[in-house]
Amino acid sequence: MIFVAVGTQFSFDRLIQYMDAWAQINDEPVFAQIGEGQYEPKHMKWARFLNGDQYNHNIKEATAFVSHAGMGNIISAREHQTPIIVINRQHELGEHRNNHQADGLVWMGKLPGVYTASTQDQLFDQLSLRENLTCPVESDNQKRQQLVQFLGDYIDGSLA
Amino acid sequence: MSKRQKILAISSPGGHWIQLNKICNEMESRFDVVYATPGTQYGSQHSQRKIHNITDASADSKLKLIPLACQLLWIMLKERPTAIISTGAAPGAIAVLIAKVLPIKTIWVDSIANVAKLSRSGEMVKNHTNLVVTQWEPLSDGKKIRYHGSVL
Predict the structure, then answer these.
(1) Which CA distances in Å does A79 have to A66, B4, B135?
(2) Quick check: B105 and B82 in contact, CB under 8 A?
(3) B13 and chain A: CB distance < 8 Å anywhere?
(4) Which side of chain A, N or C, has fewer Cβ within a 10 Å radius?
């Protein structure tokens, strides 16, 4: 199963249409969380919103997770060791209030387990390779431990 | 043993909320953590955590900022946290401005999505919050904006 999610604050009909087109010509089932989008998919199962448990279950079960270029989904994908393909919203198309997702695509693509696409062709190319996409275990979380330790020390006053 | 200190953790839904959780889940062994975020769809049925539901407002929906501010003030008066911590965006910024006039430490952790410059809400609160943390070392100025690791 391919899981598609576009976040809840903005719709992302372009990505949903791409994936609906992909679902039409491929056998693998696709499930999409479409948010407030206008476009209702015809060739894949969909829901506007999923609760946290359903959402995480889908990420865990998916062979690949297709998403807008949102950090939240990248973090969740890593937690479940599911490779994620991200496609950026474009400010020029009214898909976000700024272009930080386009800027982000470059460094996001350097994160382990994260694959990127800007166009339908690139997305379909990545999906055709989905059996070979991998995501490592989140073993090295020293940066997070450092952050949490620092904030905790700051809050309880043990930091000078 | 003295009573554990309380943290109120606030963010908008989506990526900010997930980053907030990555930080605060680990804080729960050290502090009492209560949360405030719009919508209840993120709640897991297996969780015992206390999550206050607040109005979903953004910089694009300014009128909704008024009920949001009232809710946040009420939550702070009720919970009396030692500190508030936010990853963004509008709910966190409003919370920082309210907590400024209360005896509450305020911490802003700028979203990891902001790699080239501080977020818009981060810019707004940086002179009002006690601590600003960026998750990208090059964005730290070594004084006001500090870097001490990241969620990824």
Answers:
(1) 15, 29, 19
(2) yes
(3) yes
(4) C
| Assigned fold of A2-156 | Rossmann fold (3.40.50)
Element (H, E) at A83: none
**B32-38 and A84-87 as β-strands: parallel, antiparallel, unpaired?**
unpaired
CATH number for B6-146 (one of 3.30.1490.100, 3.40.50.720, 3.40.50.2000, 3.20.20.510): it is 3.40.50.2000
Is A70–B14 a contact, with Cβ atoms under 8 angstroms apart? Answer: yes
Q: Do B149 and A152 touch (CB under 8 A)?
A: no
Would you tell me which residues 69-98 of chain B have a C-beta closer than 8 angstroms to some C-beta of chain A? 82-83, 85
B41 φ/ψ sector (left φ>0, alpha ψ -120 to 50, else beta): alpha
List chain B pLDDT tens, one digit each, 152 residues. 568 999 999 999 888 998 999 999 999 999 999 999 998 655 566 677 899 999 998 888 889 999 999 999 999 999 999 999 999 999 999 999 999 999 999 999 999 888 889 999 999 999 999 999 999 888 999 899 999 998 88
Q: How far apart are CA A49 and CA A159, in angstroms?
A: 42
Alpha-carbon distance B142 to nearest alpha carbon in chain A (angstroms): 15
Please give the Cα distance from B10 to B4 (Å, whole number). Answer: 19
> What ipTM, to 2 d.p.?
0.94
Nearest CA in chain A to B116: A103
